[in-house]
C-alpha cells in the first residue's frame, strides 16, 4: 500500500444509489402494514407484495456500497480515526435511536423498561426489524484490518468464490448446523452474524479496489445485465410468492442471484444517470448525507401513525392506513432530516464567519 496513493474521488452514482436504496427501505417497512393483515393471495396483497419483494435487495446493496467506498483508495488507514468516526457516525446514532424506540414501546405498553432489555436491544439489533443491518455492518468495520490485509493479497476470483460459499453454508445454514452439532442449543445471534452477507462485502471491496474497470465492465454489458435482472427479478418474486407460507431453503440461492443482478443493474442505471456529473444538486446531497438518519428513524413514524389510526381514529381499513403511513413516512422523515441538514449547514457557515471576524479583530 502506498502512502501517496490517491484519495477517494466523489462518485455521484453511489450517492444516487444510496438514496434510492434508503427510499426503498421506507417502502419495505410501510408494506409490512398490509402484508401483515391482508389475506395471502388477495389482489391487494399481491399488488403490495410485488414491489415489496422487488425491494429486498437493499441491505445487500448497502453492504456492497460500503465495501466499495472503503476500498477506493490504497492510502493507509489511521485506525483510531476510522473507528472513532464509525463510533460517532454509526454506533452512537444507532444507540440513541434504540432508546427513542424503546421509550415509544414502553409508552404504548408493549413492555416495561429494564437495563437488560436496553443492553440486549443495543447488542442484538432486534428491537425494530431494520436495526439488524447496523449490527452486521459494525462487524465488517471491526474486522477492517483483516479485510485490508487479506483482500489485497488474494486474487478476486477465488476470494469471491470462497465468500459465496461461506455466505451460503455458514450464513443461511448456521443455525441448522449448530442444532446438529449441539442438539437443543439455540444460538440467538445466527441471523445477525456477518457471514450471511460476506459475499456482498467482498464483492464491494474488490469493486472499490478496481473501480474504473468495474464500472467500465458494467457499462459495457448493459444489455446482458438488464436481461439477467429482469429474469431473476421475475423468478425471485414469483417463487417467493409461491413459497410465502412455507420454508424453502433453496430460495436463498435464487435470492442471492437476484440481489447480485439488482445491484449491478441499478449501479449501471445510476452510472448512466450520473454521466460525467461531478456535483450533486443540494437536495440530493442533503438526502445522501442524511440517508442513515432516515434509515434509523422512519419506522417510528410508521409505528406511531399506524397505532394512532387504529386506537384513536378507529380506521380498520388497512389499505387506507397503508396510504397515509406511506405518505407520512416519506414526507415526514425526508422533510425532518433535510431541515436538520440545512440547519447544520447554516450553523457551520455562521460559525465559520463568526470565527473569521473574530480572528480579524
Automatic annotation (TrEMBL):
Keyword check for Transmembrane: yes
Protein name: Acyltransferase
Native source species: Candidatus Monoglobus merdigallinarum
PANTHER family: O-ACETYLTRANSFERASE WECH
Pfam name, any one: Acyl_transf_3
GO cellular component, one term: plasma membrane
Membrane topology: Multi-pass membrane protein
Family stated for the protein in its record: Belongs to the acyltransferase 3 family.
Transmembrane segments: 16-34, 54-71, 91-107, 127-147, 159-182, 194-211, 223-241, 253-274, 295-315, 327-351
Amino acid at each position: 500500500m502506498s502512502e501517496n496513493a490517491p484519495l477517494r474521488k466523489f462518485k455521484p452514482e453511489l450517492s444516487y444509489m444510496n438514496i434510492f436504496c434508503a427510499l426503498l427501505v421506507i417502502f419495505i417497512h410501510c408494506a409490512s402494514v398490509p402484508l401483515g393483515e391482508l389475506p395471502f393471495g388477495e389482489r391487494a396483497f399481491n399488488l403490495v407484495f410485488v414491489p415489496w419483494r422487488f425491494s429486498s435487495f437493499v441491505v445487500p446493496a448497502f453492504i456492497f456500497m460500503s465495501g466499495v467506498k472503503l476500498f477506493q483508495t490504497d492510502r493507509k488507514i489511521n485506525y483510531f480515526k476510522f473507528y472513532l468516526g464509525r463510533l460517532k457516525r454509526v454506533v452512537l446514532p444507532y444507540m440513541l435511536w434504540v432508546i427513542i424506540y424503546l421509550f415509544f414501546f414502553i409508552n404504548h405498553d408493549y413492555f416495561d423498561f429494564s437495563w437488560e432489555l436496553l443492553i440486549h436491544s443495543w447488542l442484538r439489533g432486534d428491537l425494530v426489524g431494520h436495526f439488524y443491518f447496523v449490527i452486521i455492518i459494525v462487524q465488517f468495520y471491526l474486522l477492517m484490518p483483516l479485510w485490508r490485509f487479506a483482500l489485497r493479497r488474494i486474487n478476486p476470483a477465488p476470494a469471491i468464490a470462497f465468500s459465496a460459499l461461506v455466505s451460503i453454508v455458514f450464513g443461511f445454514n448456521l443455525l441448522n448446523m449448530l442444532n446438529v452439532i449441539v442438539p437443543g442449543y439455540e444460538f440467538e445471534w445466527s441471523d445477525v452474524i456477518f457471514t450471511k452477507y460476506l459475499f456482498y462485502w467482498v464483492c464491494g471491496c474488490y469493486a472499490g479496489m478496481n473501480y474504473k474497470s468495474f464500472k467500465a465492465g458494467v457499462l459495457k454489458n448493459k444489455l446482458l445485465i438488464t436481461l439477467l435482472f429482469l429474469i431473476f427479478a421475475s423468478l425471485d418474486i414469483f417463487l417467493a410468492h409461491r413459497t410465502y407460507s412455507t420454508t424453502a431453503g433453496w430460495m436463498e440461492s435464487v435470492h442471492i442471484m437476484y440481489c447480485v443482478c439488482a445491484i449491478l443493474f441499478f449501479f449501471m442505471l445510476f452510472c448512466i444517470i450520473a454521466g460525467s456529473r461531478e456535483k450533486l444538486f443540494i437536495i440530493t446531497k442533503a438526502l445522501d448525507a442524511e440517508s442513515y438518519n432516515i434509515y434509523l428513524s422512519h419506522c417510528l413514524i410508521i409505528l406511531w401513525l399506524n397505532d394512532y389510526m387504529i386506537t384513536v381514529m378507529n380506521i380498520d381499513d388497512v389499505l387506507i392506513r397503508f396510504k397515509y403511513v406511506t405518505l407520512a413516512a416519506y414526507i415526514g422523515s425526508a422533510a425532518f432530516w433535510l431541515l436538520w441538514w440545512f440547519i447544520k449547514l447554516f450553523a457551520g457557515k455562521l460559525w465559520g464567519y463568526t470565527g473569521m471576524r473574530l480572528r480579524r479583530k
